[in-house]
Amino acid sequence: MHTLRTTPAYRVGTALLLVTMFAGCSTVQSPPVRTGQVENLQPQEPPPPQNKVADSVIVRQLIAEADKLSSMAQSDLAKNFLRATRSFPAVGTRKAWQRPNNQTYVAPSKHALMADAERSKLVAVELDEYRYYYTKYGSPLGYMRLLEVAANNGFTDVSNKKILDFGYGGIGHMRLLASLGAHMVGVDVDSYLEALYDDASDTGRIPPAATTANRGNRGTYGSINLINGTYPKDAAIAAAVGGGYDLIISKNTLKRGYIKPERKVDKKFLVNLGVSDELFLSTLYGALKPGGRLIIYNLQPKQGDEKQAYKPHADGRCPYSLAQFEAAGFKVVTIDANDDTAIREMGRRLAWDRNEAGEVISDLEKNLFASYSVVQRPY
Fold first, then answer.
1. Angle between helices 57-69 and 340-349 (to 10 degrees)
2. Is the separation of the CB atoms in 22 and 299 below 8 Å?
3. DSSP string of 262-324?
4. What DSSP state is assigned to residue 360?
5. Distance CA 97, CA 71 (A)
């Protein structure tokens, strides 16, 4: 059995790719799994006690990261998002299987249904707590800046709100938002995520976190629903995702370099939506409630010059134009707004520019950039 573990992905340098790469640059399609409830669920009794974190190195690490970012948070939404790390449960090592021929993963629930001959071709792997929270793509607290953007655009409270994350890449930030009362739906194509979050405890109803907003009362239960497949190309996936969303977010997924690369690049590094721009945008528009918002937030390193290999992940511009958004019916608030200063401050606080020995290995001023786009479905 193999144990998958890497250097923490919040380190910049060789790990910057892990922070910026999209979770699932493939066209793997499979049916929806682990459907959770998204209606307004109110507790009938006090929430169950949270798992103790004293023995969880990873949860303590995330709490320490949140503390480092706390004075940077401006909105109540971002502050409560960080505080909610204290409600993270400790998670044991998960077992999954991998297909050596194409490196895709098989979830335990699917493995149990396979014939013996098919099972014999798989390699068992262990996915530890670090992988559970950081996956292959970095700290879930990187979503704090996206939430600040949301708060600055009128989305100040997630309680009883329905939120879709396109290319969610990890459960950590979804758990934090669900513990603040949000009903989270994540869609992705990465079989790794499907295998990692196969346990029944990962989805469904999530108890409220003890934050300033709800301390002293029972708070609001949120929920998590994870869907694996190609959205919106696959009709079954589109039906499972549904609509009625107050907010749709996408971080490090809808990049121009992934969707419309300026140079020829290996297709395995691209995001194949499988539908036209018009259909993709009209689907997102239809999935939002009137007044709902779509926020695209991207981090990227410096792009190489013409003599160097083109890096799709380094072109974080929005892949859609003002005219395309407006043709789909959206009101455009901003496209490619610069967030370099804030993301570099986050990087410094989380030591993205240093290695394990504390040595500076990257100049964030020259090698870390961020931008965001916000559009709204009119009332």
1. 130
2. no
3. SS---GGGS----S-HHHHHHHHHHHEEEEEEEEEEEEE-PPP-TTSPP-GGG--S-SS-HHH
4. B
5. 41
pTM attached to this predicted model: 0.86
Would you state the structure tokens that stand for residue 238, as one six-digit string?
A: 């589109």
Nearest to 4 by CA among 116, 112, 135: 135
pLDDT in tens, the chain (379 residues): 444 433 333 333 333 433 433 333 433 333 333 333 333 333 333 444 445 555 799 999 999 999 999 999 999 999 999 999 999 999 999 999 999 998 899 999 999 999 999 999 999 999 999 999 999 999 999 999 999 999 999 999 999 999 999 999 999 999 999 999 999 999 999 999 999 999 999 999 999 997 655 544 457 899 999 999 999 999 999 999 999 999 999 999 999 999 999 998 899 889 999 999 999 999 999 999 999 999 999 999 999 887 888 999 999 999 999 999 999 999 999 999 999 999 999 999 999 999 989 999 999 999 999 999 999 999 9
Q: Side by side, which strands form the sheet with 222-228?
A: 204-206, 222-228, 183-188, 162-166, 245-251, 288-300, 369-376, 331-338
List the one residue out of 294, 373, 369 whose CA is nearest residue 336. Answer: 373
